[in-house]
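Query form — protein Casein kinase I

QUESTION: What is the three-dimensional structure of this chain?
INPUT:
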Amino acid sequence: AGEVTAGWAHWMPGVAEQLAELDAWEEVCRAAGASTAGLFKSPQPVTRGVDLDRPHRVLRLAGAKDWENIEFGSAAKRPEQIGDFVIKRAIGKGLGGGAVYLAQHFHTQEKVAVKWPLPAEELGMWTRVQEQLPGCMGLPQLFDSGMHEGEPYAVTQLLGADLTKVIQRFDPWDRLRRWRGVRVLGRMVLRRLEALHSAGIVHCDVSPYNVLLGRPGGGGCEDVVPYIIDFGLARSWPGSGPLGAEHGTAEFASVRAAEGRERRPEDDLEALGWTMVWLLLGDLPWCEWQFEMKVHLELVARIRAAKLRILQEGWWKLRSLEPRWAMLADIPVELSSFMKTSNSLSTRPTPPPDYRLLAALLGGRRGLSAEEAEREDLREFRAHVWPML
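ANSWER: The structure tokens for Casein kinase I are given below.
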């Protein structure tokens, strides 16, 4: 237990301040929707905060506007104070110029995350989530919001590492042990998505970058749970209309999302499926493609075609291909069934997703309420995820 606690200190707020601080290349990967795994295995891997040309290349490949002038890390300018919160440092950054800062309340000294500037639409969606799903487990609390220098800001619960950090801790473990942990994480994220969907909200960008681990209540609890963050692309369902294929994280987006269609709950579920495949295998075959292609929409289309072929023709047909593809043939049958059951490929109106069946495919017990299932998954998290961290 002591070793687990010591190992976890690097990840959690209030224990080590560097919990969520991103190296320059990781910061850019998050912003550009590029794969950190791809950067690790690229011919010229980015080192810690040194090679800044490589992150800018990622931004260019991702189609970011004015990519040469985007600053990150210690070079980025930051405000001294926003509202009642003293800004400590940047812990994340978006392509639109907005950043996420580690901050501290001027009087109470409570540590929080401050996002500024952010689009008014994103703040509106975040407010809607808080109003319709108050106290929902796994959705960050919105503590405060307002205007700073004429632009909106949001103050939220400070969380820990995203799943791109978690996967590095999974590497030494065998496939069976990893699957036990991945399916627990999958069930918990599925429950958060079900809550959002029940409120008529589709997240539209489920990916490892947008699932963070944190303590319920901001740090007073010893348990750790996954949180879904970033409602910048979230849309109402139904009736929000098409969302361009360039929006979202291409490696994990659904096939329909890559076609620029109106996003549906099923698209979030397929994206969760690809996220679980990535967590289990440690990679996806298309994670390196962004270094081969200069036009982002061409990359999106190429990844879409690969995913569509897998989902339509079957995972087992990949066994005869090169190792990067053949590894997909070995995913558990429950996970491939999850992808099929999400029914994301249908272009016709479909019944609402069967979340109970999807949870059961990931090892969840039937007949439990959301609260009972969460408590059971917390026990499973301690048993199967914590030891790998």
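ADDITIONAL NOTE: The beta strands are 81-82, 85-93, 99-105, 111-116, 142-148, 151-156, 201-202, 211-214, 225-228, 235-236.
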